[in-house]
């Protein structure tokens, strides 16, 4: 019997996550009253239950009863009813943007601002976040990427360490991405922009990649960059970091940054990686 409690900040993707669980054969129940969860668990772990994969959605909509969840979890542990907690998180700016785009109000919609509502919700859900087995930050995730992370953990049963790495190429002339944790300037590498036949191509094409990487400096930089990031990732995981955004910048975001970002992604994206990873080229179409 595998029981997953899916929770997290409103707007972080809990409903989407439950749909993903359902697509993968989980029996899903959303917003079950807290007072019924323990009885429901008794049924699930009973001898007559035929369902062996269940996901329960729990969130701030439970109101004051949410406080009872700690006791419910404690009782379930005492009965040896094993469960896992998946907590979906997201940064405030992205959450506010999502609420505006969907024109939906926050469940705690009686406060003076959405940000205050989000912050109050965070405080009320902190006890679940602290107990979470898995934390996925959806701030920069597409739905298909969230699906990939959930399936990695709950379908393929791979090891997961609660860190999602985003490698993002960009052009300095368009500004540094606001959410970058680390920024690397690769404008010192050979620039295909000044080669007429390469000017209108991108770092996704072999001719540009060969030009940029056909330099000892490029290889030395890439080797040192990969070595440093591989050193940092386990230390960030140990520190409890959930999201790492690595920015690779050149002038326009078309050639050098794209090439290096692709190479870094390829070297970090191993099948046995215990972290999630995605690649993004912010300015490639500008």
From TrEMBL:
Q: Does the keyword GTP-binding apply?
A: yes
Q: Which UniProt keywords apply?
A: ATP-binding, GTP-binding, Nucleotide-binding
Q: Which residues form the RapZ C-terminal domain?
A: 165-285
Q: Which residues bind ATP?
A: 8-15
Tell me the Pfam families matching this sequence.
PapZ_C, RapZ-like_N
Q: Which HAMAP family does the entry mention?
A: RapZ_like (MF_00636)
Protein name in UniProt = Uncharacterized protein
Species per Swiss-Prot/TrEMBL record: Eubacterium ventriosum ATCC 27560
* Organism classification: Bacteria, Bacillati, Bacillota, Clostridia, Eubacteriales
């Amino acid at each position: 019997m595998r029981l997953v409690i899916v929770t997290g900040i409103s707007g972080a993707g809990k409903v989407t996550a439950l749909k993903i669980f359902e697509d993968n054969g989980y029996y899903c129940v959303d917003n079950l009253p807290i007072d019924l969860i323990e009885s429901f668990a008794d049924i699930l772990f009973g001898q007559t239950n035929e369902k062996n994969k269940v996901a329960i959605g729990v969130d701030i909509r439970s109101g004051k009863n949410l406080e009872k969840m700690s006791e419910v979890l404690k009782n379930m542990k005492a009965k040896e009813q094993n469960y896992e907690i998946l907590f979906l998180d997201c940064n405030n700016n992205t959450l506010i943007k999502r609420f505006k785009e969907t024109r939906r109000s926050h469940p705690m919609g009686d406060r003076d601002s959405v940000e205050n509502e989000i912050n109050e919700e965070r405080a009320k859900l902190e006890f679940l976040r602290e107990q979470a087995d898995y934390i996925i930050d959806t701030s920069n995730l597409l739905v298909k990427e969230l699906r990939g992370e959930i399936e990695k953990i709950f379908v393929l049963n791979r090891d997961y360490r609660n860190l999602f790495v985003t490698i993002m190429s960009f052009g300095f002339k368009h500004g540094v991405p606001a959410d970058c944790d680390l920024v690397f300037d690769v404008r010192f590498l050979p620039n295909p922009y000044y080669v007429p036949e390469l000017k209108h191509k991108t770092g996704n094409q072999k001719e540009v990649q060969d030009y940029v990487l056909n330099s000892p400096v490029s290889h030395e930089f890439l080797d040192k960059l990969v070595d440093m990031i591989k050193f940092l990732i386990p230390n960030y995981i140990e520190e409890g970091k959930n999201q790492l955004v690595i920015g690779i910048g050149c002038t326009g975001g078309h050639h050098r940054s794209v090439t290096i970002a692709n190479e870094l992604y390829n070297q970090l994206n191993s099948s046995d990686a215990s972290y999630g990873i995605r690649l993004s080229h912010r300015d490639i179409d500008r």
